[in-house]
# Entry
Amino acid sequence: MDSHLKSQVVFHLTGSRPPAEDSQVAIADLRPALMAAYRDLDSLRYDFPVVFCDGDDCVQSLSAVVDRVLRQVAPEGVPGEAMRRRVLALETGIRRRVAAGSGGRLGESWDIVTEALAAARGEAFVADLRLAKGALEVDGELAGCDGELPAKFLRHAWSVVQREKARAARGRIDSLGIQLDEILRADYMRSEQALRQPALKASFGAAQHELFDFAAMSKILQRAGRRGGLGDRRRARIEQSKAALAAQRFFAPVDQADAAGDTHRFSFDDLASALAAFRERLPELVALLKALQVAELEVEGAYVEELHDTVFAAFDESALTEGDLQFFPDYLVCLDGRDKGDQSRLSEALSSGVPLKVVVQVDDLLEESSPGKGNFAFGLRSAQLASAAMSFGEVFVFQSAASNLLQLYTSVRKGLHHRGPALFSIYAGAAGALPGYLVSAAAMQSRAFPAFTYDPAAGPDLASRFSLENNPQPERDWPVEKFSYADRELQAVTEDLAFTFADFVACDPRYASHFALAPRVSWGDSMIPVARWLEKPPQDAASGVPYVLAVDDGDLLCRLVVDERLVRLALRCREGWRRLQELAGIHDSRAERLLARERQAWEEERRREAQPAAPAPVPEAAAAAKEPAAAASVPAAVEQVEPERNPDEAYIETIRCSTCNECTQLNPRMFAYNENKQAYIADLKAGTYAQLVEAAESCQVSVIHPGKPWDPTEPGLDELIERAKPFL
Ligand code: SF4
# Structure
């Protein structure tokens, strides 16, 4: 083994490197090779910044807004080219401004950037940009893909949805109020009081005052017709409902929708305040619901006192349904992912039946487990929050990286319209050397934080409810992209490059200690791309090392050796991704197992058919012929029977193994083949219980039985034991 390989293997297995070999600081300055193309992100047109505007399409990318302007002011081809270039330069200027933290409204930014460019570009330039501004169809706050985006985005989308709700609710309330008024007025008009001379005269216009004798008219009318009509109880009931409708504080008047005024607030920064507000307002909510229902019955003339008096007397908070609550505004709670206390109260809140829309911002997926020692763990709590929320059944669950929010806007709206609680778990990307958009996109690409939605209203089964949304290449473990570079002879080379969890970690300078820079002279066959290593680790762990491809500031290619702890985390990340794939029906292990069994049965059937038929035995010989055959089959059957096993111990039904390589690839030290090329457990303690369970799940013929864990300190055992149950 040459000295380079030796020190790389030592680093890979132990994480320790020769003191002067390479500097972590230099590694922290590198970025994954696939990100080389995004070095000047602001010069590219992409989804950000976004513009928060009104209406159905309430979040739009700046590029889409500018494209619409160009369609109006820049004719196709050469005549519109100058205008097109000027407006695109302005778009870049606005994008750079937002990236530098100066957002503001689009219209204002347009003017500021126009002014800034004026000195260098001249009057014609400014005139074109002013003309183009006239074609702007929307205006609103600009927002980049940074740590503030999740709360801003959800608050804006939520306020648009609540405004729609409020408009419909106010329409219903105001219309009922008017109709109740009319009933009361009609009743009054028939009352004795209304028919007295002064009131009667006042109800006519001044022009008629000299034409009629109101004293005579009053006498005639009082003699004719019925007095009143409503009765005291009904009148009181209608007046009460009318007063309750007028006093409600859930919906602002339509023309004051944006003014807080006397209306309740529904947006909170912590769960406890939102839940307390909901409970405190319950009596008001019940009163308004009752008033609405009574009013509707009264307007239709369908109120039956003998029946409805009892029903409404018994109507209280316990009678509220999800449908009732859906009429009211939802409670928006934006949680900072760093507050673990609020996260632990989340499950209670989501299952409380309160119409909460909770946004959990996840800032960091990697957690330092031993500060200063370079040990870290995949931030399970954050990444698994949404998966856990799916177990509540009726909760709408949405998970996505912030970079993908615009693409998933329709799903966000669905969640905000969902009758019942909804959870939005959004990764915003830890602040670091790379722009937030790139870190966030890398989390989704690398399966560290995949996007998915669980919509309980979408259908009765998982197939209709669960969607992996727009994760790239969802059928693969890791997405693969073309990567082009120049080799040592300066020849262009293009190869497929997978973007793995290790690449995502390489974006984070805090974890540079998990990588070692490999000198060019050491590049050889013993260095294996990490995606290939994860797919098929070598039998001999000391025969090579996994690496990720990175680039430095000058776009020079580098190889970074990955340490074993990071490889283990990458495997764990892949496990999580595979579970999501299964939920989405991709590589469904049960379906694949069934398929393998059917294929095997079909092949055996074909084999049997291909064998020549045995000659029919003569009658006398038949009995004798049968006996040896039966006798021969007994030892054969005895050979096929596995010994009685203790279900607590891990074992493989070796004789049923179909040699598919799944388990031996997963951990070649734990699983090995015997002389018949069938798998057995070679060394149980050469791997984790997690690997054992994963092998059992991926075994196509279900012959791996994981038993009980042998190491009680292994993390995540509760979940693993649950997963192992079907294979015991
Ligand atoms: S996964 Fe199952 S079938 Fe495949 S090699 Fe291992 S034991 Fe055999």
Q: What stands out?
A: The longest strand covers residues 356-362.
